[in-house]
Amino acid sequence: MTQLQTKIGVIGLGYVGLPSAAGFAEMGFSVIGTDSDPKKLATLHEGRSPLYEPGLQELLDRHTSSGRLRFVDDIASVVREATVLFICVGTPQAQDGQVDLSQVDGAVKEIARHLDGYMIIVEKSTVPVTTADWIKKTVSAHTNGNLEFDVASNPEFLREGSAVADFLNPDRIVLGVESQRARSILEGLYASFDCPVFVTDLSTVEIIKHASNSFLAMRVSFINMISDLCEATGADVKKVAEGMGLDPRIGHAYLEAGLGYGGYCLPKDIRGFIHIGEQMGVDFSLLKAVEDINDSRIDRLLRKIEESAGQLDGLQIGVLGLAFKSGTDDTRVSPSISVVQRLQKAGAKLRLHDPQAIENTRSQIPDSPGLVVYCDSAYEAAEGCDALLLLTGWPEYRELDLTRLNSLMSSPIIIDGRNYLEPAEARSAGFQYSAMGRP
Ligand SMILES: NC(=O)c1ccc[n+]([C@@H]2O[C@H](COP(=O)([O-])OP(=O)(O)OC[C@H]3O[C@@H](n4cnc5c(N)ncnc54)[C@H](O)[C@@H]3O)[C@@H](O)[C@H]2O)c1
Known about the structure:
Bound molecules: nicotinamide-adenine-dinucleotide
Largest sheet: 6 strands, parallel
Helix content: 40-55%
Number of strands: 14
Shape: globular
CATH architecture of the largest domain: 3-Layer(aba) Sandwich
CATH class of the largest domain: Alpha Beta
Low-confidence stretches: none
Radius of gyration: 23 Å
């Protein structure tokens, strides 16, 4: 079988599964995908992407019309047609902090019920170490040990906002395998990529993914800790980060002080990793400190608003940016949403803007005339406001006419939670400007 004859199945078509399915089709593979959410499938059947990712709709258009990418309503059809199955379902945080594996459990049992020949079942979802062993046992129990299959791990490192580009141009591919057969099929899938392919055992790969995300979160909290010191001493955290990053052992990535990390991955992955550490009797207090620093960001921002504009109750506040980062419509565990909810609770009136994430925010924070108003532009959000918050670093916010923005507001106050604007420019447009860890 040539590698392009490998037929790929994708279970779960969310922020990872859909770009992966479209990406494999772009690489030349025949891909069949499904999701348990009928609304998502209906949107896909209409030819539309249910989520915003740059370049994704174009790939869907190209490969659904070429027939290389198909969506079906049930796992049974995927199992029947595919030779490699990627599990891309959600792995949210459970109440007690451990990873909720119920979506993986549901998908695996359904796969096992329909297996009728050799299959590689690949974890692409982020799962705790030893999950692959549990998948093996679950599938064996359902098939009475009568069918040959492999479980492999191939964690996804794409970033929302550049998911398609990241999938098609990865820095590295990490594979956890237990058989030569699975290894050669999976290596074959990625043979066209010009990047290292790191192959090791399943448990090691599961730890690589959780450890990588925890490390990134640690860098963010580290620079936020330094940001607090900069505020206490009048230093500039942006320049500290720049100076530190010149050391090639340190580098610049994930050293941006601000509102902290958010989104679907880092918060739950670090929590899940701490839980694993506790279960295994390993001291993970380092990562608990990372979480504490991150949690304290919202309070610091709210204090800054009070210091600049006074008591929150009754203030009219404009918010620029609701997605957890730019380039996506994803608001899951977005620090901006936490800020908005805290301001709402404190009695502030809010005017909200985001280029992509308004619909997703609305499902969590409904319109309320006079109290929560969604706006079509940053200028509209600024109208009559006592303070304007910049909470997501969308490039278009750097292009704003600050003098015009100022003229629309009651008080010219900007609090930049992402250290995104140029302080000198904001001040020369007449703004009282404050940021995170900057003088
Ligand atoms: N979002 C990211 O940036 C990112 C990056 C790398 C890894 N990951 C990991 O990838 C996994 C998926 O993340 P996501 O952001 O795509 O989540 P998501 O919630 O956007 O997508 C998961 C999808 O799986 C579907 N699903 C759940 N149970 C199913 C089942 N039994 N059968 C079929 N479909 C089912 C859901 O309906 C949903 O559409 C998680 O483990 C996450 O930690 C996410």
